[in-house]
Write a structure and sequence with these properties.
The protein is mainly β. It is built from no helices and 24 strands. The chain starts with a strand and ends in a 14-residue tail after the last strand.
Length: 274
């Protein structure tokens, strides 16, 4: 399987690749450098500097971006010049974690650290805690039929599954889908229901079946891959972010955004309804 470089960046900790179907571009972030990026395939990578660390940038249905920042969730207009806080927590020891948007346009975001949590934010800005005592929620993704929410837990080295009610945006029972011999990072799901994840300390991308069985392992040239998503016009390319932090003697692939073409087909990404 050929792994190529899409963005020859030297990101300290690239993460949260997100395909924006409205513009056919790839959003991704580098929290330590306080930057959000928009990559135009075949052309250029635009960076937006931010006042604090950012763990994800997602498109909004009304234009602009919604950002998961260290101090909370904020929306930016299409120019990137006006910010409005939706949720503001600003707590010591709290870092921004994984972020995903469900099929109803609700935003789901984890925080990292002791006493972390999973927050649900609706389009009108209402926020509530959906899950508590979450130390390292590294990834979030839904099953094709939206009845399951997958959660990559880096602290326990598991991918868990929670019952999900799409209409009401509520969670049910949580159970272990699979144990991972490595630290799972960000998640995405394809149309066949396979769960894809970056194994941060193994230099691999893996897919697991909906039953939790290891389906495929793809070695990548980056030592520390962090996250992945499907993108491209037909959502058939897997984009992979990576890091240079904690990597001894990094190569050109470390910190780059990588791409594996024609790997399958990802689920349609959604925009935040706010």
């Amino acid at each position: 399987m050929q792994v190529d470089t899409a963005v020859p960046a030297a990101a300290r900790s690239g993460r949260a690749p997100t395909w924006d179907i409205g513009t056919d571009t790839l959003l991704w972030v580098d929290p330590p450098t306080r930057s959000a990026h928009r990559f135009v395939p075949g052309r250029t990578d635009h960076a937006m500097e931010l006042p604090q660390e950012v763990s994800a940038a997602k498109p909004r249905s009304h234009g602009g971006l919604v950002l998961h920042l260290t101090e909370g969730i904020a929306v930016f207009d299409s120019t990137g010049s006006h910010r409005n806080w939706l949720v503001y927590w600003a707590r010591d020891g709290v870092q921004a974690g994984a972020t995903a948007v469900d099929a109803k346009g609700r935003l789901w975001a984890t925080t990292l650290g002791e006493g972390g949590w999973l927050t649900r934010v609706t389009g009108d800005g209402r926020a509530s805690i959906a899950l508590q005592d979450l130390t390292a929620g590294n990834g979030l993704a839904w099953s094709p039929n939206n009845t399951r929410l997958y959660l990559a837990d880096g602290a326990t080295r598991r991918i868990d599954v929670l019952d999900f009610d799409l209409e009401n945006g509520t969670l049910g029972d949580r159970s272990t889908l699979c144990e991972v011999d490595g630290e799972p990072g960000g998640l995405c799901v394809d149309t066949d229901g396979r769960i894809w994840t970056a194994i941060r300390d193994r230099g691999e991308i893996r897919s697991y079946t909906a039953e939790g069985a290891l389906d495929r392992t793809i070695p990548v040239p980056a030592h520390r891959p962090t996250d992945c998503c499907f993108g491209g016009p037909d959502l058939t390319h897997l984009y992979i972010t990576s890091a240079t932090d904690e990597v001894t003697n990094p190569t050109e692939a470390d910190g780059a955004v990588l791409i594996v073409r024609n790997l399958g087909q990802g689920l349609r990404p959604y925009s935040f309804a706010g």
